[in-house]
Write a structure and sequence with these properties.
single chain; eight-stranded mixed sheet; six-stranded antiparallel barrel; signal
Amino acid sequence: MGPIPLCLLLPVTVLAVVAAVAADPYVVNDEYTWPQWKVPLVRKRRTVSLSSPSFSAQSQSELSGTCGIECQRRLPSPSLDDLEQLLSYETVYENGTRTLTSVSVQGLNEVTAWSRNASSSTRHKREVYGTDTRFTIADKQFSTKYPFSTSVKISTGCSGVLVSPKHVLTAAHCIHDGKDYLDGVQKLRVGILKEKSRRGKGGKGRGGRGRGRRRKGDKGKEEAEEKEENGGKGDRKGKGKSRKSRSRRSTESEKPSFRWTRVKQTQVPKGWFKGVSDGLAADYDYAVLELKKAPKVKHMDLGVIPSVKKLPAGRIHFSGFDDDRPGNLVYRFCSVSEESKDLMYQYCDAKPGSSGSGVYIRLKEPGKKKWKRKIIGVFTGHQWVDVNGDGMQQDYNVAVRITPLKYAQICYWVHGDSSECQVA
């Protein structure tokens, strides 16, 4: 499926609008409202220096041997000591040095409402079969505007998402293969789609045209966003010409270009490292990159949701830079077929390069009528999963979900102060 005008795409992704707000300060019962979670605290215990990595690992388009949902059900629940070991993390700096930080977890017993969902075992393979349901966001009027502008390209070949003005969330396997850091991580960069000026020479002279064109583009974006908020209803008369114009711009757009920024430091949880986490590696396939310079791009907040399948429509959304559409941002949405407290299996069509994309949904803010998108997981791509723990491998689409513990850890990495991460 090629580029299509976004004004026709957005209405099909919207959640229905209802009004209700629960009174509980931590868990909101309204299925259309973001639940509020009291999360545990992850605190730094000790940091020690390690030898510099060799940066010799090669990136993999597919992962194998990860422990799937059924396999995990057979494993004992990790103890507090286990969790503290899994949540300890390595930090690699741009000069090639490396440290290991051990952590303590506090308030874990206060987080008791996390669901363990048993759902359908029907799944589909990840590769694109039949109709390709992905959408190329080729028109920079949209690809460089929120929420698509939060998607970034990682120089190792993956995608990521901005979760603060200068922090990117991505998949751990885009940085580390479980034994060593990938070749290229010592010079890791993040690419952000940039919007070229439409003004030609002398654009600042009379100026009316340049500014007028920008206002017209902004108006088109606002109309598309208004249609999303209204569920695709309320088309105004006389807009056919405008839609046709936007469609033509989408198909005739120039090849996207990136503004690249160096990464200051990279943090990966020890739960991802083989030999530490045994079969739990899939649960910890996430990493955070701190940029040397904050781009002037809006980020997307993290969110915690106990079940995606129980949401209206039960859909997730994410955008990334799939390898088969070089340089272009590719958006998709799909249903979640099965979920555990740490993993989500889903139907989304995807290709290598989309790994590390931020998986998000849109719900209302508590006590407000305003809808807000939040990142609830990381798309980790095509994985060969040990389903039952007997060594038999099946391939699935896998996303790692943001749990209260992971929220606490990622929030601590971003803010450097766990006191700012007590409520998700």
